[in-house]
């Protein structure tokens, strides 16, 4: 008997995404008023449109078998827990979740007794591929720290698909990850959501239909990077002025395109605005097509950012790091903004000084949407342990949160905040079969991911080296094939 | 007359420093780190700061304050083998850090004892999670030598630093090569020259003459290392560099060597065991994060320990050593998940670090004669969901409170009418 989602804050988070008009599951290129296709679109005649998807996903799931995992403890990722539960995978999708399921003909049946099944982990904050291993200077591709506003860069153009970090994350049960540019800039550029699959190209890893995101950063990083160069922004107020100036420019840019399209569609002979890569991205935010993922630590700064979003009519989807989210859960809930946080890291700079171990649990329990994130090539490998710590610390503070509820912090919450919440992040019929079979309770230090399925394809098996991907870089190196 | 108090009450009621007294931690699952192994329903008696008895049948003295550990685990305190507790408050604010001094003319002479701040807020946050002792390290500045390390407890008392000049730290890894001028040969040449300077101290520094690598103050500080009285802790990662370090030790008797990092240690595990060189590793370091550590593996700790190497665990490099040294039990638990027997993994964060630094007869075990560093946990200490419910240092219960718990308590009830700044 599954406990259906009874997470009040989860609904608020979903609403936030609805406001952000994410287009998960649909083709990003065809959504929104900026239109689709290139200049040769027959339907549009000679009207110039902006191609929203010039680097389309070529991801093709590996063949999915029919797999029945039987007799496990199932955490469905949206608050439900089933003892002695079964999960049936067919055609790359979750076909059924329950108890006493029949194995279809030809199904691979796996005995899950004593083990746990969960949705695959989703990390909403990774720099894999952009800051890959080894961390050599030639591969330092995460921060275009040459101008404070670089909304024109797309991190997918920096992702090196041969980063061995991807396969280590897979061994930790990560099936989807969101790669972001760094936080040196006010507008760092576009982020990208990836399937955690090996590919020769990043296009082969792109999550089909996932909305683009925009990385913004507040606080010390932009003001330190540019202040040290004797230019703006050098202060928090300089940061705010920098964003606002860009939003004004973006609003004008959007208006000019709308005026153009309206006139052109009325048959008028008008010239289109000059396309601007930077403003294309910001316009995408104003149109609700691109989700804002905002690096921000302090409560007061998050409040400023939320006011600014209202000033210019856009939605912040998630505050990342958000070490002071616990101070403003009411404001976050009111503005439908999520917080993606660490379990227990802080102290490395002034804006991270007020870290508490209970941040995630307190933010969640006090009504806001909260989730875990890694921001780290090592931390991404153990996000199950990170939510375990956050849960334990929350419980010691008197917060009543179940393990099933807490698993949402690593799966359905980040899925929603990435606009893919109706595709993955939970074990529901029809969802992508992104599934992890754990050796035991994943809230234990001693538990490892035994097997990982992505779109129904067994993509990792701890006991079978044939099912452990090895990136090109590792071939012939001393660590080849090391877990 | 016995007082019976709950564990939680003990940690609060007895937080204030008191005259040394007697405590009986009763009915716990006691991990002794001795031949006695793990004792069920056992009692630990602490008197005047030291452990005086351990066992299932230990008699509880009349004057003892009883800390009931029924259903709990009782262990020696965690010893952070490679930390920077009390040296860094806010890492990016140079004014609050005392771990390194790249602008100083000195290197080996720099002594962390002069920078350690027992009032640093991370002493309490680490103590609350079971860390009672730590080796504190300087960071390298302008050459391969970072300076001299020390041993501290986490009580935060004025006497927290209980041993200075415990070791000298030098970086001979890829980063050390960079500091030495740009190559590994440069780093080793500098090290050999520095040792020669130390051995020649004070004679070769007569008049205005300085050493080939070190000035007279640094040479003086390195002399105890050259004479084998103080260990040299050396950062190396690549297997070839570890072999070079093994040769260095053999060529420079009676020098004592401890390796830290050792990402590729498993590739030379037998040689390390034969050379009797202890190693401090991070069991979670598994990425080829540089060309220095292309062989990094989650199996590193298990393979080294299987080969008979004395291994202690650190949180660095995958986590920091000033804020999150407290995570070392989690790192040890993951070592267990990757093949290290539980007892060995637990020793690697308690007794083995103490032994490596030459204080294994006082810290890291629960046995008569050991300091009364006793932690009562609400579960298996290597489980991420476990936490201490009482922490005794030198036989005194400590407060399980910190700046972080104060912030938590201020904001946990978000709807309270009292303005936040008035909540204390």
Task: Write up what this structure looks like.
The complex is a heterodimer of chains A (483) and B (424). With 483 residues, chain A is an alpha/beta fold. In chain A, 25% of the residues lie in helices and 19% in strands. Chain A has helices at 8-19, 165-171, 220-227, 236-265, 277-286, 299-312, 329-334, 359-365, 383-396, 403-407, 412-417; strands at residues 67-75, 81-90, 93-98, 108-111, 116-119, 121-126, 174-179, 187-195, 213-217, 291-296, 316-321, 338-341, 370-372, 435-438, 449-454, 457-461. Chain A is globular and about 65 Å long. Chain B has two domains: 3-76 and 371-406, Urease, subunit C, domain 1 (Roll); 78-356, Metal-dependent hydrolases (TIM Barrel), CATH 3.20.20.140. Chain B is globular. Chain B has twelve helices and 17 strands. Chain B is α/β, with parallel strands linked by helices and 424 residues long. At the A-B interface, helix 9 of A face helix 9 and helix 12 of B.
């Amino acid at each position: 008997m599954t406990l259906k989602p009874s997470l009040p804050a989860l609904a608020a988070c979903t609403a936030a995404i609805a406001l952000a008009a994410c287009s998960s599951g649909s083709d990003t290129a065809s959504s929104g008023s900026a239109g689709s296709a290139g200049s040769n679109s027959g339907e549009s005649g000679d009207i110039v449109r902006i191609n929203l998807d010039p680097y389309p996903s070529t991801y093709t799931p590996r063949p999915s078998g029919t797999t029945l995992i039987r007799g496990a403890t199932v955490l469905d990722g949206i608050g439900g827990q089933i003892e002695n539960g079964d999960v049936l995978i067919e055609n790359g999708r979750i076909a059924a979740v329950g108890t006493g399921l029949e194995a279809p003909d030809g199904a691979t049946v796996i005995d899950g007794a004593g083990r746990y099944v969960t949705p695959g982990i989703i990390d909403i904050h990774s720099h894999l591929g952009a800051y890959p291993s080894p961390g050599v200077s030639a591969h330092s591709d995460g921060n275009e720290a040459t101008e404070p506003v670089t909304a024109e860069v797309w991190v997918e153009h920096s992702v090196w698909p041969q980063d061995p970090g991807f396969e280590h994350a897979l061994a930790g049960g990560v099936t989807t990850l969101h790669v972001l540019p760094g936080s040196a800039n006010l507008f760092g550029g576009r982020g990208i959501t990836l399937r955690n699959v090996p590919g020769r190209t990043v296009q082969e890893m792109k999550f089909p239909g996932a909305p683009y995101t925009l990385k913004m950063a507040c606080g010390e990083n932009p003001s330190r990077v540019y202040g040290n160069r004797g230019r703006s922004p050098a202060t928090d107020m300089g940061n705010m002025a920098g964003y606002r100036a860009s939003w004004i420019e973006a609003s004008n840019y959007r208006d000019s395109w709308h005026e153009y399209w309206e006139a052109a569609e009325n048959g008028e002979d008008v010239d289109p605005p000059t396309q601007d890569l930077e403003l294309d991205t910001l316009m995408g935010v104003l149109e609700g097509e691109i989700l804002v993922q905002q690096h921000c630590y302090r409560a007061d700064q998050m409040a400023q950012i939320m006011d600014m979003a209202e000033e210019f009519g856009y939605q912040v989807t998630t505050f990342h790091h958000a070490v002071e989210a616990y101070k403003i859960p009411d404001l976050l809930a009111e503005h439908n903004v999520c917080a993606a946080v660490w379990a227990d890291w802080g102290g490395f700079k002034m804006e991270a000084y007020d870290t508490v171990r209970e941040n995630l649990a307190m933010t969640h329990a006090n009504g806001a949407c909260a989730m875990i994130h890694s921001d780290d090539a090592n931390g991404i490998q153990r996000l199950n342990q990170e939510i375990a710590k956050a849960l334990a610390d929350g419980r010691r503070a008197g917060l009543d949160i179940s393990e099933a509820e807490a698993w949402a912090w690593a799966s359905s919450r980040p899925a929603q905040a990435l606009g893919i919440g109706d595709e993955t992040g939970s074990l529901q019929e029809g969802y992508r079969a992104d599934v992890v079979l754990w050796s035991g309770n994943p809230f234990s230090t001693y538990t490892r991911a035994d097997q990982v399925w992505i779109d129904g394809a067994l993509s990792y098996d701890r006991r079978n080296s044939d099912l452990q991907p090895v990136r090109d870089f590792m071939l012939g190196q001393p660590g080849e094939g090391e877990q | 007359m016995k007082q019976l108090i709950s564990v939680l009450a003990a940690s609060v009621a007895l937080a204030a420093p008191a005259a040394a007294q007697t405590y009986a931690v009763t009915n716990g699952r006691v991990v002794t780190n001795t031949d006695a192994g793990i004792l069920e329903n056992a009692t630990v008696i602490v008197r005047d700061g030291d452990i005086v008895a351990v066992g299932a049948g230990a008699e509880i003295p009349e004057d003892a304050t009883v800390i009931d550990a029924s259903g709990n685990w009782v262990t020696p305190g965690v010893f952070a083998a490679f930390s920077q507790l009390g040296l860094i408050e806010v890492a990016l604010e140079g004014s609050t850090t005392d771990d390194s001094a790249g602008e100083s003319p000195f290197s080996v002479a720099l002594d962390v004892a002069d920078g350690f701040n027992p009032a640093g807020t991370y002493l309490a946050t680490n103590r609350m999670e079971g860390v009672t002792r730590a080796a504190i390290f300087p960071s390298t500045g302008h050459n391969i030598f970072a300076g001299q390390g020390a041993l501290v407890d986490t009580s935060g008392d004025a006497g927290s630093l209980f041993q200075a000049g415990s070791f000298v730290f030098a970086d001979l890894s890829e980063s050390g090569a960079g500091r030495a001028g740009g190559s590994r040969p440069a780093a080793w040449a500098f090290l050999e020259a520095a040792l020669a300077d130390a051995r020649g101290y004070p004679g070769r520094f007569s008049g205005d003459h300085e050493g080939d690598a070190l000035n007279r103050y640094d040479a003086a500080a390195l002399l105890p290392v050259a004479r084998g009285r103080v260990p040299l802790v050396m950062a190396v990662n690549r297997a070839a560099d570890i072999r070079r370090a093994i040769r260095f030790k053999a060529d420079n008797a009676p020098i004592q060597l401890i390796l830290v990092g050792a990402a590729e240690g498993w590739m030379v595990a037998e040689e390390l065991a034969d050379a009797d060189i202890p190693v401090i590793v991070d069991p979670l370091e598994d990425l080829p994060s540089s060309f220095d550590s292309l062989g990094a593996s989650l199996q590193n700790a298990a393979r080294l320990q299987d080969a008979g190497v004395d291994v202690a665990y650190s949180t660095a490099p995958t986590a920091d050593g000033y804020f999150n040294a407290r995570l070392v039990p989690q790192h040890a638990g993951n070592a267990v998940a990757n093949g290290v027997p539980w007892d060995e993994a637990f020793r690697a964060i308690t007794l083995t670090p103490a032994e490596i630094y030459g204080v294994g007869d006082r810290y890291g075990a629960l046995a008569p004669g050991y300091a009364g560093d006793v932690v009562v946990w609400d579960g298996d200490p290597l489980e991420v969901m476990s936490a201490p419910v009482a922490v005794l240092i030198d036989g005194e219960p400590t407060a399980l409170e910190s700046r972080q718990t104060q912030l938590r308590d201020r904001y946990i009830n978000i709807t309270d009418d009292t303005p936040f700044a008035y909540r204390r």
